[in-house]
Amino acid sequence: MWITVRLFANFRENRFKEARRQYPPGTTIADVATELEIDPGLIGMIFIHGRAAELDRVLGEDDVLALFPLLGGG
Amino acid sequence: MPKVIRINMTDLSVRIDEAPAEWAGLGGRALTSTVVAAEVPPTCHPLGPNNKLVFAPGLLSGTAAGNAGRMSAGAKSPLTGTIKESNAGGTCGRMLGRLDIKAIIVEGQPVAANTWYQIRISASGVVIEPEVETVGLNNFAVLESVARRYGEDKGVITVGTAGENMMMISNISTRDPEGKLRSFGRGGLGAVMGSKRVKFITIDQEGTRPVPLVDSAAFKAANMVFTKALKDHPVSGQGLPTYGTAVLVNILHEIGGLPTRNFTSGQCEHHDMISGEHMYDTIVARGGEPTHGCSLGCVIQCSQVYNDKDGKYLTSGFEYETIWAYGADCLIDNLDLIAECDSVMDDLGVDSIETPVMFGVAMEAGILKFGDGVEVLRMLREEIGKATPLGRILGGGTGHVGKTYGVTRVPVVKNQAIPAYDPRSVKGIGVTYATTTQGADHTAGYAVTANVLNVGGKVDPLSNEGQVELSRNLQIATAAIDSTGLCLFIAFPALDIAECLPAAVDMLNARFGGKLTMDDVVGLGKTVLKLEHEFNLAAGIGPEQDRLPEFFELEAIAPHNAKWDMDQKELATFWNF
Asked: Of A33, B18, B264, B479, which is least surrounded by CB within 10 A?
């Protein structure tokens, strides 16, 4: 299945901003993080199609996954 | 003994009193709101002789506490008709702390309409003199003039031409450690200072000694714990110093909460061009500074120095709200143009939220085109800056422009512009906009934390459940933090690291020798909110105004098709504490 992965802030360093990538069925968000060598402990926000999701969520075809470190402002 | 300086602009007299004993535990917002609530008739005209403009450093101002460089300004707001507190960094809070001045209260109004004054405050007293040289000049010229005449090391509180012309969008500016500007931004306080014909106030700390501490060893120990928490938390220790507050652009776009094209969408196509990540890359490529503080003793350093294409200084303190409002709400896809707008707004002395949100409504009204940053710059300089009739209409703020041009999509609460988080997709911040005593203000109870950022828990941003309680707890905590002189961004570590806030309380006790507990600090926050609320009720700003504009209920916003649908009765439970 194809997933769009968007990375933000320092997660982009030596990786990418946005990429369309292929994963086997049953892939979780944690699997994607591992594959991208992003320490799950550093992930602050996860969104699929703009809604919050957890690391153990199983991804579906054409999901848009956004990964952010913990960030804030205001 | 701590002093209170009263400056009467009607008869140009000065009184310096010992601070009343009951003000001992008050500083910053707690003190400005206490003075305004006790001494300003709630029904007075905000630009008349009965309003008072109060400046108060925080309880920790002048000490070595990390991030304690904020100072409050308060009055009845001409924009909202409510009580108002607005705080800023810069150098004055620290100086007033060292001078042991608890408050400066500017009262009355000169009879002669065309005479302007300067006020100079030092350890030896207060001088009021007529001011001519800087009248009609903007803030950067005022700073230059003050530095030349009185020295580079003075603290400065000033209004630009917008404040002189008593525009509702005007702010009060203050000098930062590098001679640039920081702002008491919201609520039109520049107009109040202009109505009292005060062009600038200087603060001179010469001859002062370090602030005395009752227990300096305990203070030092608590400050170490406190600053360690600020450095350890990923938001205050890494995210904010690197990317500044503009890192929020991509986050809010992603979750559909980035108000775009005058609040008609929650996402903006060119979000990456105006993002914190893009800003960081631009700053580094041009030899600017991504990491920079607004006041001495700042550990977080969320400010930055943004240079132009030729590597020359363009602006600093370049905030998410400014970038969002011009970039997404007005659709200007050029960060350099937005930075130039930021600098011009600093110079004129206008609020960098009210002004661009107003331009979004002006664009919808057809006064100028969406995306036309060049025309925005022209209007800032030539219309607002020269107080032409159109400039005065624009200078009246978002609500004023909406009324003048018959626009119904006018994002204000209590006539103050709604900032950078759409309340339909981030419902907790909608509760804050509706209920805060200040008019729409995200900083009053920043529910974006638990709604979006996963700081201090998690509350679904698209559900109404739990939002009133979230906003209430944050508003109480914020009112307390705003009274200490601490920067609100200490809330990020404070919400997640257990020892952070107790360390701040330990510093208060070590400074004054008291026995404050966390409960006392929460109690202070509640007291402040309640006295502000009572002022507003007496001013005629009742519960029927604790609501969002109707268009949020009528128009669903992309991408979540979200509307504002919180029951008004549920909103009213906010005040059950």
From this structure: B18
CATH number for the domain including B308? Answer: 1.10.569.10
**What does DSSP assign to residue B327?**
I
One domain, residues B262 and B353: yes
Are the beta carbons of A73 and B234 separated by less than 8 Å? no
- For the stretch A22-72, pLDDT in tens is 999 999 999 999 999 999 999 999 999 999 999 999 999 999 999 999 999
Each residue's pLDDT tens digit, B528-540:
999 999 999 999 9
pLDDT at B226: 97
Cβ within 8 Å, pair B235-A52: no
**Residue A74: inside a domain, yes or no?**
no
ipTM above 0.95, yes or no: yes
**DSSP class of B421:** S
Asked if the structure places residue A54 within a domain, the reply is yes
Evaluate whether residue B33 is within a structural domain: yes
- Residue A10 touches chain B, beta carbons under 8 Å: yes
How far apart CA B22 and CA B19 sit, in angstroms, is 8
Domain contains A41: yes
Cβ neighbours of A50 in B, within 8 Å: 254-256, 559-560
Chain A touched by B447 (CB under 8 Å)? no
A22: containing domain: 2-69
Q: What residue numbers bound the domain in which B291 lies?
A: 245-422
Contacts of B503 (CB under 8 A, 6+ apart): B222, B223, B225, B226, B229
Examine residue B179 and state whether it is found in any structural domain, yes or no.
yes
Task: Please list every residue in chain A whose beta carbon sits closer than 8 Å to the beta carbon of residue B419.
Answer: none
- Read off the pLDDT of residues B365-394 as tens digits, 9 standing for 90 and up: 999 999 999 999 999 999 999 999 999 999
**B561: which chain A residues are within 8 Å (Cβ-Cβ)?**
none
d(Cα B70, Cα B487) in Å, to the nearest integer? Answer: 6
Torsion of the alpha carbons at B95, B97, B101 and B103, rounded to the nearest 10:
100
Number of domains in chain B: 3
Could you say which of B244, B254, B448 has the minimum Cβ distance to residue A50?
B254
Whether residue A33 is contained in a domain is answered as yes
Looking at the fold, whether B477 and B391 belong to one and the same domain comes out as no
